[in-house]
Every structure is written in structure tokens, then in C-alpha cells.
Design goal:
globular, 14 helices, Rossmann fold, 13 strands, 6-stranded parallel sheet, 369 residues, single chain, 2 domains
Amino acid sequence: MRIAYLSIGGHIHTERWLRYFVEEGHDVHLLTVQPAPIEGVTIHDIRTGIAFKPLHYAVALRKTRRILARIEPDLLHTHFLTGYGYWGAFAHFHPFIMTVWGDDVYTTPHESFLKGQLARMVLRRADLITGDSRDILQHVVAMGGDADKCRLVQWGVDLDRFSPDAPTTMREKLGIPADSPLVISIRSFTQAYYNIDVIVRSIPAVLSKHPETHFIIAGNEGDDSELRRLAGELGVGPNVHFAGKIPHQELPAYLVASDVFLSVPSVDATPVSLLEAMACATAVVISDLASGMEWVTHEENGLVVEAGNRMQLEDAILRLINAPEMRVRFGRIGVEKVKKGADHRAHMARMEKLCLELIHEGREGRGAR
């Protein structure tokens, strides 16, 4: 099948999703305002260079329609409800699949009446809607999405690469002693709601009890300069390693080397990095968001803290540092949960089946007319 995607270029989520379909022999096209090469994918640049947003959206939509008319895909699959979702809906192309990501459901549609109406319009026009948690799909339905069109599809984890047995030399590379507790955060620096500053502010309390502890602060997007400055002001710089954007192929080595993984945002769907950490048997601390708690039960396979609560975060980190047997237990259960429910290839195969069914239904419908 020939699939046209509207999505964020240069993003690991987009790349992994599209690569699966390329590897399965499909003809894959990406229409994007953030063009970046993906092997086997034909990239279509729909940038306009127009600063005035309404005009930018209108001109990009015209480019989108022209490209779709030229390549004649079997279906249009749009990722991200706001922005790309608008182009997908106004393109009036069917079958039309909508995949939601996170703040495009939880945050942006609630910023204004217009954004809310546009998001609802996109959901109404979609032939199929996918999301990575029951919670985000419940929010989609609450916004007017048809529950019968909603499907749970995970981004998933590459279980061949993310496992407790993944080789690692990260401690040696970063100069961290083998017996020092190591805590890692891998979340974007672009939004305050990821609460990376809360993590950095928790470090002095942890070091006061365990001065040998080291932290890795990494993120696949944004600028960490303010966080570096904050670490310097707090006097914890020597124990904090700012790793920037870790190449995805190197990520298992970081996770396997770490004792504790932190994901404590105030807004989020299912963090793929959380599932990848669990697959590597790294003990996890998460915030009390519904999507994350579909994977982590407090005291059973991780610790759950109130989003933004620094004292709870400090206590959770210290508990795990002080209890290696708890870390092992959490890690073992986490690996089994991810193997059972978050295999990347299994979820992409399910997505492929959904696409083929939708195309078949569309052809049958046109034949009936």
C-alpha cells in the first residue's frame, strides 16, 4: 500500500513508525514542515516561509492537497491532533487515520475556543483514531471522538535492543564509579510541564544522604542551558551529567547502566522512554498521571509521586537507592509487563492490519455506490 503521513519530521516517534512500514515493503511518503531524511521514505516539504499563521496554514494546506492528488496514496495517516491534524482534516482525503500524541489532546485544545473546535472537527472527520493509552482515548471520546473508531496502539519498544542484557560502558565513559547510584531522566527540555527543573532541585537533598550518587539529565528536544545554570547554582554540577540528545541506538546502554529512571511530568500520554527503561529492568519513578499508571502500580513495579512534588520525588529516589532488592523486583516485573504489552513490532503489525482493513472497507464502499 501507499501511505501518506502528515507528521513531525526529525522525531524518533515518526521515524520508528514509518521505518516499520518501509521495511514491510510499503510505499511511504511524509508531508511535513520539519523535513529530515528517513531511509526509504519520500519526504515532501510543505513549509511556506510565511510568518502569519492563518496564511501559513492555508498555503501549506494547498501544498498538501496538491501532493496528495499527485501521489494518490491509499490512505492518509496524520500524527498529532493539532497543527498536522488540521491539514489532515481539511485535505478531505479518505481513508483518514488520526494518531494522537499527548499534549495535542491534554493541553492545546483547551487553550482557546477556536483550538477546541478545530480539534473536535479533526476527530469527527477521522475514519480511525489511535492513541497509546486508555486514558488519552477516553479524553478523545470526551472531546467528541467516536469510541467505535478508537484503537489502542503503542509506539512500543524494540525488545531486541532494549533489554537487561544490553551491553553498556556508559559508566566508564562518563567516569561514574561502578558502585555509585545512578539516576537518569530522559525527557524533552521544550515544555515546563516535564518538570525537569523539579528533578534538578531534588538533587541536593539526595546528595546530602548519598553524596556518591550521580544523575544523567538528557532530552531529545530543546535547550538545557537553564537547567545547567540551575545545577551550578545549587552546587551539584560535578554529580550531574547533561547528555543532551542521546542517539536512540545508544539509549539502551544508558538505561542498563542506571539504577533509577525518572519520568515526572504534569501532562503526558504513555512515555516511550518509560517503557524502554522498564524493558531494561531499570527501577522507575513516575508522576501520578493516568497513562503512566496503566503501566506502573505504586509499590508493585515502581514508585508513583505527585507531579511537581519535589519532596515526594526526593523520598522516592532515596528509597530506591537504599533498597537494591526493591529495584531488582521492580525491574523484573517491568520487563515482563513490557514484553507482554509493548512490543513495537507487534503493535505496528496491528496498525498495518488496521490500515489494510480501512482501505478495503473504503474500496468496498466506493464499489457499492
